[in-house]
Amino acid sequence: MKKTVVGFSSLAHDLQEKINKNFNLLLLNPKAGNLEAQFQEMLPQADGMIGSGRVLNESILQYAHKLKVISSISVGFDNYDVDYLTQRGIVLTNTPDVLTETTADLAFALLMATARRVPELDHWTKQGNWRKTVQPAQYAVDVHGKTLGIIGLGNIGAAMARRGCFGFNMNIVYYSQHAKPELEQQLGARRCSLNELLQQSDFVSLHVALNEQTHHLIGREQIAQMKKTAILINVARGQVIDEQALIDALQQQQILGAGLDVYTQEPLQISPLFAMGNVVTLPHVGSATIETRQAMNNLAFDNLYKVLNGQQSAYMVNPTVWPNI
What superfamily does domain 100-281 belong to in CATH? Predict the structure, then answer.
């Protein structure tokens, strides 16, 4: 008898086909409304769940009496109550590694676009303002040879640092829980305190997971330490920055600009950020390429398949659960 899997977000057609070949797939329908009633109906049947972007906690999972695994199509897992899942003996898996290079590409694209004012000057040109040689009002700032500060030198942070070092001859400083001697040797990177990084960096790029320690890691006090010519890049999680503090700092010209892919509330509908030419805003697309999303779907399915067939996945967020499965 096939096991049952609940898809709790929109799933690509080919992923649905793979799941259907191996399991019974039940799909949540947000357009139908009353999601709690749908969860209440589907979850008692669920052996596994797969999806992304939805908060799953005790109030929802209380209906999932026989659930073994949640396969998240993402690297971040701040929308799951990991302690509760572990207590229940439910495996949580994620999809790191496959999105590392793509997300770093996006982070550096934000850095370049903000520093060289690409969206702003694109709009300026299309509005018919290019009537003579550009003036100092249209000048941007250099990227090559500058200092890039990486907050969180994990996989994505390291990939970002490599782009800066090898592609643009940038000096790399980093703030991380643990020293990374191999990367220090490869990149000439130097570990320093958060305050020192903020004071010295021309570009500050955030690459940390969201947790109690990193919530509002960058607030008013931290922004005040940055150079007035500095640019802040965030492809991590919106709540890592105190968004209102950032807005105030940008309005008061405390820093030069920001490139943002993530926000405190998503989707971001109305914000003072939209009126700022020195801010590049993207709709949380760090991993949103055809190739990478396919790789994430494949890995998420593989994680789901393995756990539901008694095999240990290499991408378990809470591996201590496994002996009790």
Answer: NAD(P)-binding Rossmann-like Domain (3.40.50.720)
